[in-house]
Structures are given as C-alpha cells and as structure tokens.
Design brief:
Distance between the termini: 32 Å
Number of strands: 2
Strand order of the largest sheet: 1-2
Number of domains: 1
Helix content: 10-25%
Radius of gyration: 12 Å
Amino acid sequence: MPATVLRAQDLGYAFPQRRLFHQLSFELPPGLSLVRGGDGSGKTTLLRLLAGALP
C-alpha cells in the first residue's frame, strides 16, 4: 500500500454566500499532479487551505 503524503479529515470551508466544503475527507498518495473541476467549484480555495494560506 502506498504511503499517504496528505490527509484531510472533516474539512469544511464557506464563504458568506456559499458553502464549498462540508466534512470533506481524503488521503493523497505520492504523485498527485492534477486537481480539476468546473469554474467556481473550489479548486483554488482547496489548494490555499491545504497550503495554509487560508484559515
């Protein structure tokens, strides 16, 4: 089984007008190179949260 390099558990985030994530949980193995989704789906916000740029 590959090692986990990043784990999120029960992650939540909302803007005043919209909730983006609620109880989001996942484990990422080494080698992740793509985050995709439609416009406004929360890709950049998720990456900023994981990087510590958002509280």
